[in-house]
Amino acid sequence: MAYVSRALRRASPFLFQKRLESTMASLTKDEILILLRPPYTNWSHIIREAEKVVGYPTSFMNLRCLLSDEFANLALYLRKLVGSNHLVMKTAKNVLYGDSKNLQPWGLVILLLSKSVKTPTLNSKAIYEQQRQLAELTEMMRTGHLIHRGIVNVPFAKRSKSTESDIFGNKIAILLGDYLLVTANSMLAGLKNADVLYVVSTALKDLSESEFFGERDEQNMPIPGKPKVVNDDNITFETNCIEANDVLGKSRKEWTARTVFNGVSLLGRGCQASMLLGKQNRETQNFAYQFGCHVGLAWQAAAELQKLTDNKGQFCLTSAPVLYALEGNPDLYKIIEQARNDVKDVDYEDLKFNILKTDAVDKTKMLYEDHAKKAMAYIDNIGQNESVDMIKKLINTF
Q1: pTM of the entire structure?
Q2: What is the pLDDT of residues 222-241, one digit of tens each?
Q3: Residue 101, CB-side half-sphere exposure with 13 Å CA sphere
């Protein structure tokens, strides 16, 4: 009976509890994982509803670039990697089969935001066409970056017949990622708007910097900073003002900085550029940027929590639950230090069990809730209509 009552108290996955300290220490591993497993949500249904609002099917498979001969040729080469464990195949699977939990619908959010405001001009149809193009190129840039991150480091001294598929996969990842980024930049130039070009280019700069932020292992996988005492959790979304020494080792600051650099600023700048194309004032543009960043951070926190509570699989060592656990129990950093050369050497099951014994899960839920509420507050400042209501559904359903 005591077990049942504990389970009922933890039944809601994203409604954080008032008490932060963990009450899970007395449970077994299996009991903890059952309690934390997120419930099924009809995400695909919400996506279809949102696409009806914008009047456009926004999945990546519908992007016009996929109809080109160049992409078709690359897809043929990509098929040769079927059955291999190359990282580029995992990314391709997420894109082609619509794994929305790994690839959130950023383009759809930008289009919904575009529909939420009235364009102060008679040529609203042409503006919305530009905003749709902006949504597409934002998705392409993000996907191209993810594919480039799928490159596997194969030291020259270790190359042999067994590594041939890795080397071939790297060539495909480079070509495919380059194609998407070049096509996206061509579409961006086609908008013929210098201000939009500057805003989106700022996000591309952030994506590049994300690959050099903090320590990395031999495969360029991120390693968290050594835990430090935190006196202030506040951090700006203006990436030019973020200093690595000021955030590394400080759980929320480090997580926010890494996540913003690693793509969230692209979503924020995409939302900002959408308002710029829609002839909105600077205040509305700033609201849109803040909204986009908070949406991206909320979704990332939710995705990381779901990844952690899966029964199997490797999770990111710089995810929010890990960083919060290190804050609560700095001794856990010894487990990570032992795998500094290759993060795969970490005993993830043992690390997961130790994480779940801290208050990291509660804090990650609070992190999601905090950014979701802030995102809704910013979108309320922009508009009140069907598009805004649909954005709120997307935030809450994820």
Answers
A1: 0.83
A2: 899 999 877 767 788 888 88
A3: 14
